[in-house]
Amino acid sequence: MGAVLRAAWLIAAKDVAIEWRTKTAFASGLVFAVLVLAVLFFSRDPTVVSSHDIAPGALWVTFTFAAMLGLNRAFLLEGELRGLDGILLSPAPRSAIFWGKFGGNLAFVGLIEAISILLFVPFYDVPIWLRFGELLLVIAMTTVAFVAVGTLLSAMVVRTRYAELMLPLLLLPFLVPPLVGGVQLTAGLLDGRPLSALSGWLKLIGAFDVAFVTLAALLFQVVLDE
Amino acid sequence: MRDRALRLAGVGRGITVLALLGLAGVYVRALKYTPLELSQGAAQKIFYVHVPAAWAALLSISVCGLLSVLYLWLKDRRIDLAAAASAEVGVAFGVVMLTTGPLWGKPIWGTWWTWDARLTSTLFLFLLFVGYIVLRGVLTDPGVRGRFSAVIGIMGLVLVPFIHLTVYLFRTLHPAPIVLKPSAPSLPSAMLATLLSSVGVFTLFYVGFVMQRYALGLLRELREEELAGAAR
Amino acid sequence: MPPSDPVIIATALSRRFAYRPVLVDVSLEVWRGEALLLVGPNGAGKTTLLRVLAGLLRPTAGHVERRAPIGMVGHEPMLYPALTARENLRFFARLHGVDTARVAELLEQVDLAHRAHDRIGTFSRGMLQRMAIARALVHEPALLLFDEPLSGLDAAASRALVALLAELRDRGTAMILVSHQLEMLRGVGTHIVRMAAGRLGTVDPLQGRDPVALFTALMREAS
Q: Quick check: A107 and A140 in contact, CB under 8 A?
């Protein structure tokens, strides 16, 4: 168990170092986030649709699509000079590769989400500070859901010629339960409803997290084999 | 193995013909002998095709998922071929479901489509299995193809209850479940009988189609092997 | 050094790619201090065999028993272009549980110490190959697998590598070498085996004979 964590940490740290140095996925993710937030804000009729109403949807669309831009890069960088083979030749447990990639992806997506929220507040003028702790919990749980599935799927599609097309195609259906839950919870919290009233959604996302993180970790070994 | 595949295809064809006859019977029964529904009128009759198609699609996904688990365990390529056959047939039934749905919805709700939870979720499950088929098309090595398909199949199966729960939590335009719900189905018995016979017919269709598709897949693999062996 | 026990035992390995058989019933043992030259025409399955022995590829049938740590230099360097030479080796050292002090030593050994802080994405083919060798040696493996180790290396670097290989062999490291440049590996090889159409021939101890002459004879025999 310790060996897995140690190797996973090394792999995640390596990925973060590489992304920090090149910043390609991060830059495009950020540009995309700004674009989506701005377009959704300006494309409505302000007298009919208040920013308060579209805020939860706008936030989650931003998060998801910016995340998808970054998910493929985790495995693309392994393919350039076949670094992954070097890892497979080492005594690092294979499950550590999943946890390392998952951790690296969470860091990447988390950073984009944090910056998106900072941009979100001035644009959409919603009182997120009042429910910040609870919102953070909801965002964290939902992000874990789609990053877990996304990590597994990106490992599969990276070797196909149409990785950028296949990832959204395969990932989108898995986003429905956590995303619907995430938007409902965000909207509910921003409307001032107590978390206890929204417990159904919270339990749904929680169960989804447990089921799919476990499943992704188990099935990842299958995907690694050539 | 080739002869067995051909025989299986033949049996599958026979079952399909039987199912077609059954379908004709269901149509007659639904249109002539089943009472008209009070608020929806004649349009409601699509129910007898739409719901069984949904059932068959669900059956296809479940069988695909279970076979996927079996494949990862036993690694027999025939299991992979059967899972793929089930997925393809599921997509076909999904098309039926997604076309009869709007045809029913237009006269009743006044709109072809709405992004409510049930419709959206169904659409996405359908898209997942379309993705399954696309992925299979893109992967050439049968070992990789089998393993990756199995991963999607299993994940798809686990996704189904979550989608069901999402729909349940999100009350909408879509009729609340009248058949698959905790208390007894609230359908009058004549309608229930027609529905159940239609479900039976669609299940027969499922079996017939999967047999033929599986046989075809197996024959194709045998041919590929032959060609690869001959090329050396 | 007298050979003591096999570092790797492969039994009845088979492997297919998209219906084509690439390895057919391959069995092999390699002992400490042995340098096995693996020769054969293109498409014979040599690279596939090395990858299966290394554990990067699963055989369709058969079994590999690995009794010691393995290092490999393949067609690709197995490194990260965005990281520096030092960072790359530090990463792999840590993964292997080796003290990072070894990194400086390795960079010296492959003559890349002066480029330690440069991103390897900027390196030439030959420099990448030397990096790959450093990576393979990081944990001092008992068995080394080389797939065209001399490719991309200039004359000086080739001679340096050959000298290194001979030294490693004398210290008891086992190795399997696939190379089209047999003349350069004359002094290194202790055994030779031919592979064709997925099948392995019998391993022939060189015992002082010239591998190049033997190879030519083997090739003539086959056609």
A: no
Closest CA to A152 of A74, A206, A64: A74
Task: Spell out the domains of chain C, with CATH numbers in brackets.
Answer: 1-68+144-223 (3.40.50.300), 80-141 (no CATH)
Q: Label residue A50 left, alpha or beta by phi (over 0 means left) and psi (-120 to 50 means alpha).
A: beta
Nearest CB to B228: which of C19, C60, C197?
C19
Q: How does pLDDT run across C21-67, given as a tens digit for each residue?
A: 999 999 999 999 999 999 999 888 999 999 999 999 989 899 999 99
- Burial, C155: exposed, middle or buried (Cβ in 10 Å; 0-12, 13-18, 19+)? exposed
pTM of the model: 0.89
In a domain, B181, yes or no: no
For A218, name the nearest residue in chain B, comparing CA atoms only: B151
Residue keyed to tokens 């013909």: B17
Say if B179 falls within a structural domain.
no
Q: What CA–CA distance (Å, rounded) separates B123 from B211? A: 26
Phi then psi for B141, rounded to 5 degrees?
-75, 125
Residue in this structure with the two tokens 């300006």, named with its chain if needed: A42
Cα C189 to Cα C137: distance, rounded to the nearest angstrom: 19
Residues of A92-110 as b/e, b for ≥16 C-beta within 10 angstroms?
bbebbbbbbbbbbbbbbbe
Reported as a single tens digit per residue, the pLDDT across B27-59 is: 888 887 777 776 777 777 788 888 899 889 999
Min CA distance, C221 vs chain B (Å)?
A: 20
Is B12 part of any domain?
Answer: yes
Q: Do C18 and B232 touch (CB under 8 A)?
A: no
Report whether B154 contacts B185 (CB < 8 A). Answer: no
